[in-house]
């Protein structure tokens, strides 16, 4: 493997040119070992830029931050080899079809053993966890300013999204409620509502009344993810509606037919999610 | 290796809420190519049958043990996120 490193503001940038594998797509940039003052582990960050990014140097773009970054683009790093969300392919297709606004997507790698801790908002006496606040500080206070210094991204809430699946869906919902002035769009896919006796539902009920604006939210679950997972997602959708989210406007809830709890299924939802959250404003 | 993944470890939770996933890793052997099977089977309470019913299964075949173990771990991790965090190891 041949890696070129440039140290820059606490993160090492690398363009992956693996001799034994194909190089990363030219519109993907891998930044190695992003450091944080809030969490102990370094983590890689992978960034997708849309077609034409280099041709329009004055243009700025909406940005979507996604968790589990190693499962989004590159089959060599995904948890199940060669199974990814295929975000680049789906984003390219949505943009080129005029369905979605050209956008930048930032994939934040999880840290393996500490994934569960970082993606959960409350401590559970049997499973631990509860470090989502520290993870939120990493995202909002460290990573987002750094991304804005390196890429032409818009920084207002209307143009900033956060998303993930499973525990990544849970932490997206939590941080979206925690930072409503930062994130205007949320992709909550197959969320782990079950965590700590569904405490996220109580958090939603407590915080939603205090929110001036509700983030636009994509919520989904596969109908083959288990009875409880489907019921939990339906419960969450009902709570969102009761707290002011409007179906078709600020909320899209979908039970995906044949949908399962894995990367292949989430890949099939990416394009529609982008179309809903980042619709093309003009043809 | 067989593990049962549960959505509860509470002995007092009602059976009607039970769902479980069985994960198996089996060495299939083979005279020409050694093969390993990772099988995932889902089961859930059926209101109509008033018992736990096994549903469909998914198989994946691997030619080396490391890939099979990685797949097993990946399936286990995905199922944790799906709400099956408690494990019983059978052997």
Question: How would you describe the overall organization of this protein?
Answer:
The complex is a heterodimer of chains A (about 280) and B (about 90). With about 280 residues, chain A is an alpha/beta fold. Chain A contains seven helices and ten strands. Chain A is globular and about 50 Å long. The N terminus of chain A is likely disordered. With about 90 residues, chain B is an alpha+beta fold. Chain B has one domain. A five-stranded antiparallel β-sheet of chain B has the order 4-3-2-1-5, with helices on one face. In chain B, a hairpin with a 4-residue loop joins strand 3 and strand 4. The radius of gyration of chain B is 15 Å and the shape is elongated. The N and C termini of chain B lie close together (about 5 Å). The model of chain B has no long low-confidence stretch (mean pLDDT about 90). Chains A and B meet through helix 6 of A and strand 3 and helix 1 of B.
CATH topological fold name of chain A: Rossmann fold
Q: Percent of residues of chain B in helical segments?
A: 10-25%
Secondary structural class of chain B: alpha+beta
Strand order in the sheet with the most strands of chain B:
4-3-2-1-5
User: How would the global form of chain B be characterised?
Assistant: elongated
Strand order of the largest sheet of chain A: 1-2-3-4-6-5-7-8-9-10
Instruction: Categorize the overall geometry of chain A.
Output: globular
The greatest interface here is: A-B, 20 and 20 residues
Task: Give, in order, the helices and strands of chain A.
Answer: EEEEEHEHHEHEHEHEH
Identify the quaternary structure here: heterodimer
Q: Give the CATH architecture of chain A.
A: 3-Layer(aba) Sandwich
Secondary structure: helix percent of chain A: 25-40%
Number of domains of chain B: 1
What's the CATH first level of chain A? Alpha Beta
> Given the structure, what is the number of helices of chain A?
7
Mean pLDDT of chain A: 91
Provide the residue-averaged pLDDT of chain B. 88
Percentage of residues in DSSP E strands of chain B: over 45%
């Amino acid at each position: 493997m041949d890696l070129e490193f440039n140290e820059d503001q606490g993160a090492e940038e690398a363009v992956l040119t693996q001799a034994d594998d194909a190089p990363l797509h030219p519109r993907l940039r891998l930044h190695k070992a992003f450091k944080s003052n809030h969490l102990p582990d370094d983590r890689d960050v992978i960034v997708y830029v849309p077609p034409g990014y280099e041709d329009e140097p004055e243009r700025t773009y909406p940005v979507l931050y996604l968790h589990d970054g190693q499962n989004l683009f590159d089959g060599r790093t995904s948890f199940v080899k060669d199974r990814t969300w295929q975000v680049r392919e789906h984003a390219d297709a949505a943009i080129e079809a005029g369905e979605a606004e050209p956008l930048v997507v930032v994939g934040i790698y999880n840290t393996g053993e500490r994934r569960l801790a970082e993606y959960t908002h409350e401590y559970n006496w049997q499973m631990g966890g509860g470090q989502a606040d520290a993870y939120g500080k990493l995202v909002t206070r460290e990573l987002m300013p750094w991304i804005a210094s390196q890429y032409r991204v818009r920084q207002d809430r209307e143009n900033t999204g956060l998303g993930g699946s499973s525990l990544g869906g849970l932490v997206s919902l939590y941080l979206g409620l925690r930072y409503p002035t930062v994130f205007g769009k949320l992709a909550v896919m197959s969320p782990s509502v079950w965590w700590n006796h569904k405490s996220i539902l109580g958090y939603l009920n407590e915080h939603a009344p205090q929110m001036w604006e509700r983030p636009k939210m994509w919520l989904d679950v596969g109908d083959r993810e288990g009875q409880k997972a489907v019921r939990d997602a339906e419960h969450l959708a009902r709570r969102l509606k009761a707290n002011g989210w409007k179906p078709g406007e600020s909320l899209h809830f979908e039970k995906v037919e044949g949908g399962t709890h894995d990367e292949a299924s989430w890949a099939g939802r990416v394009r529609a999610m982008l179309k809903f959250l980042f619709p093309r404003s003009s043809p | 290796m067989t593990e049962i993944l549960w959505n509860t470890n509470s002995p007092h939770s009602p059976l009607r809420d039970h769902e479980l996933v069985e994960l198996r890793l089996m060495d299939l052997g083979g005279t020409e190519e050694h093969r390993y099977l990772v099988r995932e089977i889902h089961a859930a309470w059926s209101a109509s049958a008033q018992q736990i019913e096994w549903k469909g299964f998914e198989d994946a075949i691997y030619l080396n043990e490391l890939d099979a173990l990685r797949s097993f771990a990946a399936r286990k991790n995905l199922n944790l996120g799906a709400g099956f965090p408690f494990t019983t190891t059978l052997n």
